[in-house]
Amino acid sequence: MGRIKKKFRHAERKVCFQDSTARTNQAGTAKGAGCNRRAFIRSGVGAAGLLILTPSFGAARSEPPGLRGPAIGVPRGMPGKEGRVVWQHDPQAVKWTGSGYWWQDANTDQARVEQMLSLGLRNLTDAGTDSAAWNALFRHFNRGAAGYTPGESIVIKINLNNAHDPNDNNIDATQHLVLALLKSLIRDAGVPGANLIVYDATYNTTYNRGRIPDRIFDYCRVPGGEFLNVIWMDSYGGNGRTIKVLTGNVLTYAVSNSCGAQIPTLVKNAKYLINMPLLKGHTTAGVTLAAKNHYGTINTGKDHTYIDPLNTSVGNLPRYNPLVDIMGSPEIGGKTLLYIMDALYAALAVGATPVRWTPAPFGNHYPSSILLSLDPVALDSVSYDLLVAAYNDPSQTGKNTTVGDRLPYADNYLHEAALADNPPSGIVYSHGGNRFSSLGVHEHADFTAPTIGQRYQTISLRYNASPVNLGAPSWTAYS
Ligand SMILES: [Zn+2]
After folding, report:
1. What are the boundaries of each domain within the chain?
2. Whole-model pTM over 0.70
3. Residue 377 C-alpha to ligand 1 middle, in angstroms?
């Protein structure tokens, strides 16, 4: 534990929770309102900035012996902000009443989504303006050498895996957040529209998976000008969409499996990638978050044996997971500038309708949140905890037992990724003969907290003072 604790010492915190109703910052001027040092210390976490909670999930937890408890892995991010996950929550951003379709334009507030993204970018970087935030992100990516240079392309992976039918309520990417991101990149970061590629390369003609729907394409072109130059890529083409062209084999896997080794040439040729997944449960993998979003980047082979924690035909846990190879690939994880979790709506299964989350801070409303990070393990760890808490809510009506059976074990890939240099499975994850280093930091909220609301609170309280008072928190800090 001593070694792990030392590694984590420089991660000042992971989750910065900001609730726009509790501390409204409509003007977006109070820089870092959810992440400032004062709030952090006021939370009682301690001046050392070290707060590690004891997760206890009961006997069903997949935490291998010795991993339960302290954070594992090495947090990633900007200096002094490693492992940070910013959680922006604005319940007024989502207005869907449950009738009609969740994705209809009027059911989400564009201005509020843009404000959430703006505050999220500033809170992630401690920058005073959105332009400064982007500049900080680009400079961090380029190791301080340069900001963004026009001509460099940025691919944005959104999740359209359930875009089977334009007239269903299955969850998919929210057009409001896609447009907010494009506006910020074009207007604040100075990226020409022609250098932006929004894509989902999923291909499944039976279900039309990954087909870019008009509701997103048309909506994001309304501003005109540079926005008309943005490239939209899917596996089908037509109607203004660019059809994907695949590379040769560019991905490698530590264990032979059915995942494809090809990616779209536009992804290969891009300098930067923004990974914008959904917060969603999954009937095979338990969860589908930032890592699995790239099953919509690789070509058609998508292994579903190793990612199924209950499929013992490929061995018992802890075991190999191809998501770790994808997360560590120089072509995917290695070119990721930023991770943005679209948790405006969330679903507890694939092909499912968004469900309401009952306890505070959600209050029987959709999560209406976005989460930002530079640490893919930390982001998926927080997202995993949110889904587990939502699923375990006794009043939750959107349960799918196939997902529920897998959830307690679905973080196997996070253990493997956090400890990619020496994973619990013993697998050697590598690229070009170089063994991966840790891909980020993993830990859990306190799931011994007696109420679901308190469990949500521990997720936000782990690293920062939550502005939402949910009653006495229940957490235990390692010392
Ligand atoms: Zn875990």
Report:
1. 2-461
2. yes
3. 10
